[in-house]
Here is the input.
Amino acid sequence: LISEYNITITAIDDGSPPLSSTAVIHVRISDINDNPPVFSKTLYTMQVSENNKPGTLIGSIMATDKDSAENAQVSYSLIEEMVKGFPVSHFISINSDNGNIHAVRPFDYEHNQN
Here is the structure.
């Protein structure tokens, strides 16, 4: 991947003898935020034992971005949807920096069968 170019340009006059000179143009390509983050999987399946302790690591997700520098930095967040009448953040949290998903409270298998 080339992010910069050195281009040599020559100017020649029509005199006799023709005289010329050269110049070098240095072109640096700057990245724009033109690539969206892409998850490493389209579906993540995770499992947690019931009666887990709050803070238990349930799993991790990962996305990468083909841009560079700050345009490639990815952060994670939950979309607040309702699950059994509660916001999803009532059950899990996500680390915005590394994608680790943690249980906020204990899960009860029998309670969730309703």
